[in-house]
Amino acid sequence: MTPPLIVLGVGRSGTTLLRVMLDRHTTLAIPYESFFVPQLAHRHGRRPQLDEFLDDLGRLRTLYDWGIAPEDVRPRLREGMTTREAIAAIFETYAERQGKTRWGDKTPLYMQQLPLLERLFPDAIWVHLVRDGRDAALSFLELPEGFSGKTWAQPRTTAQFAARWRTEILAARRLGSHAGGRFLELRYEDLVAEPERELRRISDHA
Questions:
Q1: Which residues, 6+ apart, have CB-to-CB distance to 53 below 8 Å?
Q2: Using CA atoms in the order 42, 45, 49, 51, what is the torsion angle rounded to 10 degrees?
Q3: What is the spatial distance between Cα 178 and Cα 9, in angstroms, rounded to a whole number?
Q4: The dihedral of CA 195, 112, 64, 88: what is its sign?
Q5: How far is CA 121 from the centre of its chain?
Q6: Where are the alpha helices (DSSP H) in the chain?
Q7: Distances (CA, A) of 86 to 80, 94, 203
Q8: Contact status, residue 128 vs residue 191, Cβ threshold 8 Å
Q9: DSSP label at 144?
Q10: What global pTM score does this model have?
Q11: What would the pLDDT profile of 127-176 be if each residue is shown by its tens digit?
């Protein structure tokens, strides 16, 4: 299986726009935000018990939003597989339903879980989208309260967002120092101004 392509970016940095663009590719499927990867990884350790894993999948609203059910994932699961492989099987099932051979992910909340993602997907291709922190802050803080959060506390002031922005940017760049040639950083402003050029950069990178 071709390595997954994982889009990184602080919230309100244009990752949804980039996801939509990349999802138009004939072989790449990137669903709406997953949210479940850390939950499943922490719950099931290195190797899941398949019945328990499937039971947990049945409780994930995200799967049904994607148009798949635990029964659709079951044929890709096997005894002795790692939790990493079992989680990948969910995305592979989604990609297959879309008629595509490769999967990706775009979930900004995972910016706080990058060491975990790096361990789970050691061969992943990473695309880090950076938006001017001032514009990202304005966009984020204009959201209705509660709209942007799923699990972790969200910034409520410009200063809090600035601290989050800096922390997450540096975390992504640390991951990039480990990933080497599998990591690409681009700017939101360049993507909007020259989308064809920037998408070609990603295509060449991936």
A1: 40, 44, 77, 83, 86
A2: 10
A3: 17
A4: positive
A5: 11
A6: 15-23, 37-44, 50-57, 61-66, 70-73, 83-97, 114-120, 133-141, 158-179, 188-193, 195-205
A7: 10, 13, 27
A8: no
A9: P
A10: 0.94
A11: 999 999 999 999 988 877 655 545 456 788 999 999 999 999 999 999 99
pLDDT digits (tens, 9 = 90+) for 172-203: 999 999 999 999 999 999 999 999 999 999 99
Q: Which amino acid is located at 112 in the chain? A: Q
Length, in residues, of the chain: 206
Q: Rounded CA gap, 149 and 124, in Å? A: 26
Place of tokens 């350790």: 45
Residue 4 gets which letter from DSSP? P
Residue-wise burial string across 42-57, b where 16 or more C-beta atoms lie within 10 A, e elsewhere: eebeeebebeebbebb
Residue type, 78: R
- The pLDDT value recorded for residue 30 is 98
